[in-house]
Amino acid sequence: MSKNAVEAHLLEKRYGEVEALRAISFAIRQGEVFGFLGPNGAGKTTTISLLSCLQEPTSGSAVVAGYDVVDAPGQVKKRIGLVPQELALYPTLSARDNLHFFGSIYGLRGRELRMRVDESLELVGLAERARAAVKTFSGGMKRRLNIAAGLLHRPEVLFLDEPTVGVDPQSRNAIFEHIEQLKAGGMTIIYTTHYMEEAERLCDRVAIIDEGRIVALDPPCQLIGDLAEGIIHLGIANGAADGLLEKVRSLKQVRAAEQLDGRIRVEAVHTKEALIRLLELFNETNTNVTGLEVLEPNLETVFLRLTGKRLRD
Q: Which CATH fold would you assign to the domain 229-296?
């Protein structure tokens, strides 16, 4: 029996002439937090829609919790929880009444429904506000209740689409703790976000999607080690960069370099090696260093390298 909670093979989705997904393949292990990262329009939401049976693929196949998304969508839906980016709550109802309504849709009744509602409210830290109308909640509280609604039926696979958009730092940290608690309980979580630090903290592996294709898939630490560049800022005296910039660019440890006001900005392939060689070069050319700042590589530098720095609509 497969230990993968999700398997996708050559999954494609087209809208007329537009190719939203282009033959992507991946597998997500049971109990894993798997992140999808990508610019706007890259295909993240389309992927979630196909895996959660909201749309059918144009071609290719996907299996979620042991069932094919096209042949057995009803079985898939019973086993997944979907927390969309847009809030799916009734503002005039209380938190408890909202969860009772969604729980009844999942087929829960009576004592079991009441128990699941209490359990979910406790998990997201809203038990004390259970009787309050949702319209009185902060944005962060609404997000947490939205997550609770997706957990009522104890899904095998939970989809979280941008769950921290527009929330305050305290609520964001609470959501992180909830996700870590769910992971510790063995739940498989598929997480989309624009925030790189979230993916670094929460995800066992991430897939970076751009223009409908997966351009990288690995644990964040491995992507950072393999693909990220560190940034080095070297302060120099006015006019000292004349003739020096090309020598900096010629170093094999340097991917790119530019002169800014009173400093040289270097994108380094291997940060420590590049720093040593840069200081040697400055010593050889009798260039005084007036300042030094080293920014360690992170998932954001990987993301920008793979997807580019231009803004996406």
A: Alpha-Beta Plaits (3.30.70)
Per-residue pLDDT of the chain (313 residues; tens, 9 = 90+): 468 999 999 999 999 999 999 999 999 999 999 999 988 888 998 999 999 999 999 999 999 999 999 999 999 999 999 998 888 899 999 999 999 999 999 889 999 999 999 999 998 889 999 999 999 999 889 999 999 999 999 999 999 998 888 788 888 888 899 899 999 999 999 999 888 899 999 999 999 999 999 999 999 988 887 776 678 888 887 666 667 888 999 998 888 888 887 788 888 877 888 889 999 998 888 888 888 888 777 888 888 878 875 545 4
Domain locations in the chain as residue ranges: 4-224, 229-296
* CA 158 – CA 143 distance, rounded (Å): 15
Q: Which superfamily, per CATH, for 4-224?
A: P-loop containing nucleotide triphosphate hydrolases (3.40.50.300)
CB 156 within 8 A of CB 65: yes
pTM score of the predicted model: 0.81
- The DSSP annotation for 7-54 comes to EEEEEEEEETTEEEEEEEEEEEETT-EEEEE--TTSSHHHHHHHHTTS
Closest by Cα among 229, 237, 231 to 291 = 237
**Which residues on neighbouring strands pair with residue 8, listed in sequence order?**
26, 62
Answer yes or no: are the C-beta atoms of 227 and 271 closer than 8 Å: no
CB-neighbour burial class of residue 190 (10 A; exposed 0-12, middle 13-18, buried 19+): buried
Please say whether the beta carbons of 219 and 208 come within 8 A: no
- Residue type for 264, please? I
Rg (C-alpha) for the chain, rounded Å, is 24
